[in-house]
Structure formats: structure tokens, C-alpha cells
Amino acid sequence: GIQVEQSPPDLILQEGANSTLRCNFSDSVNNLQWFHQNPWGQLINLFYIPSGTKQNGRLSATTVATERYSLLYISSSQTTDSGVYFCAVINTGGFKTIFGAGTRLFVKA
Amino acid sequence: EAGVAQSPRYKIIEKRQSVAFWCNPISGHATLYWYQQILGQGPKLLIQFQNNGVVDDSQLPKDRFSAERLKGVDSTLKIQPAKLEDSAVYLCASSLTGGGGDTQYFGPGTRLTVL
Fold first, then answer.
1. CA distance B18 to B78
2. Which residues in B lie closer than 8 A to residue A101 (C-beta atoms)?
3. Which chain B residue lies closest to A104 (C-alpha atoms)?
4. pLDDT in tens, A44-88
């Protein structure tokens, strides 16, 4: 089945810093989502982005489907950005959602 | 609009006991998903329903886990008998259509501890 790898596994930032999280996938996809899991465990959609670029406030994401990767950019990080960021994909022609192992982000005040 | 509802939020049981979780998806969403998230890992899909029918249950341990979605709305996930390794958060999600071209919305989860 399709493999999803996220990097880095852990990231510590000073408040105000920028960061880039990466998601690599091993097969073509027709669905890619980025989620933030907050410290209380709630998974929150950030982007539905099987291809192209989207922006929402301080967050933006780019998926290059032909090269099988997606990037999540966080600018001017805040302590409330702390948590785990997951990439989840569904391969083209399939139904099963596969999550990566996540990137654990801690933003220091 | 109301989000995905789950209950209970927490459950503690002893091994070999049975347990059931309930999920109410977002109104009008045809597809419902159950995931298992073990501490430190990403969620793993257990079963996916499209309306009343099962789309995928390839990762559901069918000797002890069962799930149903009556009338294409609410769903229950049952574990019988529970094992220590079933300790995890069980997440329910829903999407408008499913089939890969849709956003999934998650409930708050049920944290299960098996002693």
C-alpha cells in the first residue's frame, strides 16, 4: 500500500519563528489533507490540498503531486500552534485513508 | 453546524470485558469513518461506511471488533473481548461524499484504557 513519511518528527521553535513541515508519499493521490491535533487530542482540518497551493492566515500549503510531496508552512509561529501535524492521503482509485506518523511541534514563548 | 459527536469521552475497563462507542456524524454526511489512534502514532482506519454499506474494513480485527451504521446515520463500534493492546483513542470522522475527493471532519474521540 501507499507509504506516507513526514519530517521532521519533532520540532521546537521560538515564538515568532517560521517552519516548514514535509509529507512524502509513495504513490499518486487524489486526496491529501493536513490536520493539526491539539494538546487535547482534537484533530482539526487545516487544508484539503491534493495539488496546488492554498493559504489561510499564517498557514499555507503546497502539494506537488507529480513529485509526490506536500509542504506545510507556518509563519510567525505562536504557542497555540503547538501540537502534532498530520498529513493524510488517499491513493488514486482507492478509498483507504493513510496517515503519516506526524510532526510534533512545540513553540516556546 | 454541529460537528461530529462521540460518546463516551473516556472509558476504563478490564481485559476481556466488552465496550461500545457511539458516533453521530455531521448531518447529511454520507461517509463515516472509525479510526484507532495509539499513543504516539497517527490514526489508523478501522472501518469506513458509505451510507449503510461498508466500503473498507480491511484493518478491523474482526474476531473482536464489530461496527454497524443503522439507517445511514449513527454508528456504534464494539470491542468484545477487549485486550490490553486495545488501549487507544477511537476517533470517528465523517465526510460529505467520500470516495477520496472530500474533507474529513473528526469528533473529539473516546479514550479507552484497558487494565
1. 7
2. 41-42
3. B40
4. 999 999 999 999 999 999 999 999 999 999 999 999 999 999 999
